[in-house]
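Field: sequence (string)
Field: structure_tokens (string)

Example rows 1 and 2, in order.
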Amino acid sequence: MKNLATITVILILVTLLQGCRHKTERLEPYGWTLIESKFDSLTRVAEAYMYTPISPDSVEAVVRQMDFIAGTSTENTNELLARSRYWEAYLCNRNWDGFHARQALQEADSLTSDKYLKERIGSLSLTTENFKAYETFRNLLQQLDYYKSIGDIPQQGNTAMLICSNLAYTDAPDIALDYLYMADSLFKASGTDARCINLGTNEATLLCIADRKEEAEKVFNRLFSDSIITNHKDGYEVLLRNHYYFFGDSASLFKGYAVQKDKEHVTTGSQSLTALYESLIADYFLMKGNIDSASFYLNNLKIDVENIEDDDIKSTIYGTYASYYDSIGQKEKAIEAINRYEIIQKEIDKSQSPENKIYTDYLRAKEQIQTEAKAEKNAIQIRLYAIIVVSIILLMSIIIIGRKWYQRHRIKYQETLQRVEQRERELMGSALSRQHSEQILDYVDNEITRLGNQNVITGRDIAQLDRNLHLQKLDRKGIQSFEETFTSIHPYFETNLRNIAPDLSDTQVRLCAYIMLGMNNQEIASMLNIKPSSLRQARLRLRQKFGLTKDDSISEFLKQFTPPMLDT
């Protein structure tokens, strides 16, 4: 048995150690399972680069190192390659290169079996494929719960930011702001509050969509004075572009175009953004009536509009072309541009409806349920507090009434005890008086014997005998009075005794009464008119009938049949 217990304890300890080891085999505070020390260190660097003012070159250098380690590793090769492809896709997505991002994600998904990585691949795939779609939103909500369940706080923040951006394309800017503030608090809680350089820009944009322009302008001014944002080209460019959209600030438009042109990396995504700026500037000059300047910027586009992946950018450029061709009198080209603009807009509307209304209605219903639940909770708390107060009042009332009742009955009980003690004293006096009578009877008996032996009996002798007989009669009345008084004080004493020992004689019942009253052996022997030795035998027989041992107290035993009276 000892060996079995030892083995059981060892197995439990091993299981606990394995559990602890498994718990610590993650890259805190993220959900990545530790797999290779150098690669894990690079993963931490890559995570730190997400949404921070780091140049794409730095991210690309980290991805190259990851790819090298994955290619030269002899263990966990597929998993390392999958993670490397994931970060490659993240870099491509950051550079607006959706085509290569999708290819890298497909390869990563085929190589990995890790649930955490598959979740991140799914999220990045959906946001790359159709960022505004309802399916993307629903997946992000599920992932938010998943990252919460594994304790990955930074990724919770990233997902909340993605949900916020997804909702920015709906008519629910207030709900989008809730997720933005959630992301901000999560970043601060995880110590990665610099992760999202665009958080402030998104806040300003959502405030504008919610028609809270004064609040938005304050946020824009704060961001423009932040050197970290102004030195980050991507973030600064988005900030300037959004400021132009909502406030029509031409200075922001031209400054944003300059920042975009100054970017070192030339990709399809960056060319698309440059084309967007050039069409916006052309539209600005068209509104000013400057056809030549508008023509210059439209003819400066370095990319075929049909090769642009973002439908919003595409529709904006075609809209500008329609206005331009209409202003120079080329009606056919203007109609062609308008038709293309309408087709793209229909595609945009198709990608968003009717599902976007479904999930905004869902979120509003969820908020309503939460508000009602909170109100119900407050009402329950108020009722609970009221019940507690009423219960306390009732309890205190019961305590006060109980104390008064106890004091009243305690006084009554003490008075009853005093009456019982008084009657027992009287009974004891009656018993002692009977003892004295017994002594007189003994004297009379002796006198009769003496007179019988005399030859001559005088009148004096007869008078003396008559007196003694009268005393005996009085003594019998005393005995009867004693029994009546004892019975009135302890009415169930004899009945209870006979229930225990039905064969008790009247003399034994009286003996029990004398013992219960606390008389000593000499007094009891005198009362019963027996010798002390006979009394000892009588007490022994009582013990036997009651089943008592020599160590048991017969007087304590008898007292249990005489509870104090509570009523007068």
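Row 2 begins here:
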Amino acid sequence: MEKDIKVGVFLCQCDGQISNILSLDRIEKAVSKNPKVSLVSNTNFPCSKTGLRAIQSAIGEKDLNRIVVAGCSPRMVEQLFVRTITEAGLNSNSLEIANVRDFCARVHQKEKSAATTKAIDMIKGAIDTVSIKQPLENLTREVVKNVAVIGGGIAGISAALSLASRGNKVTLIEKDVQLGGMLNSVYRLYPRETDAAEFIKEKIEQIKTTKNIEVQTGAEVKDIHGSVGQYQIKINSKSNSKKIEAGAVVFATGSEYFYPNGLYGYGSDKNIITQLEFETMLRQNKLAAKEMVFIQCVGSRNEERPYCSRFCCPATFKNVLLLKRANPELKITVIFRGLTEYIREYDEAVDLGVLFIRYDPENPPQVKNDFIFVTDEKTDKNFEIPFELLVLATPMIPGSKSKQWGKKLRLPVDEYGFILEPHVKLRPKRFAPDGIFVAGTVHWPGLVSDSIGQGVSAAARAFSLIQKETIEREPIIAEIDPQICRGCERCVEVCLFQAIKMVKDDGGFQHAKIDEFVCKGCGMCATVCICGAAQVKHLTDEQVNSMVSV
């Protein structure tokens, strides 16, 4: 630790959000009395370009070696200030942020004096904490120059081709014997009505002729170990099992299609089929029916699955328009709950003679003896519609192993089982494991174009990771002293990120060990460690005590 601690305190006015509640003059006078403080600056936005330049100038002019920013949430601005002070020559661990906006100004608007007193205590605690912080060096690790893409649907294919085009090695793993996923059953693609068979055939041919892509079909991923930069993946196939290494993983295992057994007579009548089965029928040119009825939202937008799969309506419009353009004599009825995004397609379908009937979810259609009985919600008119073929538009549902893999890979899943980001606004397309990227309908139901875009996006993020020989991360992690650790495994039980495992030293004694590139520095291990072996590097017990003893 330096002999002379020189702390610079930067107070943020936040355009009145802070300064209209807290007395910054009073805070400045109180903070200035601390012998460790060399500078107190009161500005509107320290996080602005002008404010950041002022911080860098003050570091040089006043020879500051510690920085305290009293403003808003560290989640919003911490990385910005870390970059600023490191560019000025300070260690990244020389910063402390006091969130006086959210914890004082916003929550104590009617108690301005007390709020100011609280802010002073918070800033004093931040000064004492940052004063005893030790410089921490970034962690480094070599990167395996290979990306494992799990899932050979259009999302996985797009990710693999995008990575290979940049010169990266890719291992594409698909559990089925053929690449393509659900597109192998689709007739035409919305909105350009491209031939799906030709489209996916062309993509698969690109995969086969690209040197950097190794394809493993009929292969199932049994286990994944390691962390960002160095993953070990066990693959089982009929012929053998093998292990591969990868620096990053693109998880694109897709979703499953819902088959509505028992709904509207599905499963008991061969003339009642799903939208996907209808696509296959069109693809194989086996359609013979002249009277068809389509029912939307079968098995979705209900209590069990309140979400919309997005692809159902476009698929229905696409198929209805294709059929009516080819044969205007066909009788086609679409029974729906709501169509809000497809005005152009709706108008064209109506002009071609398609009958649209909107039903009340409380009074759904009834199927009896090759007839549909339904009441139009708007006109309250009852319809009795004969059909030769009934097509049910059903949703995508999470894959059977999505939750299992989500737990294994520390990927959060929503209430339905789809994998989702920890925070769609603050960390879009980013997940807790830094080396795993998610694409396609395993993330959420959508169109083919959505899956392609997500595959390319995941590839870009994976490329930015593995293009380097080594990767670095900030040392905001926990550490465990093996000499003190008793091997009780309490830290292993509470670690949310599975970053801790038990190992044995040369003497055969068991102790906990942290994977530095998995640990997120949450401190859960330190809170349950009964012997004090676990400490958080950037927030030690000494720093916490200094903060609360103000």
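free_text_note (row 2): The domain at 7-131 is CATH 3.40.50 (Rossmann fold).
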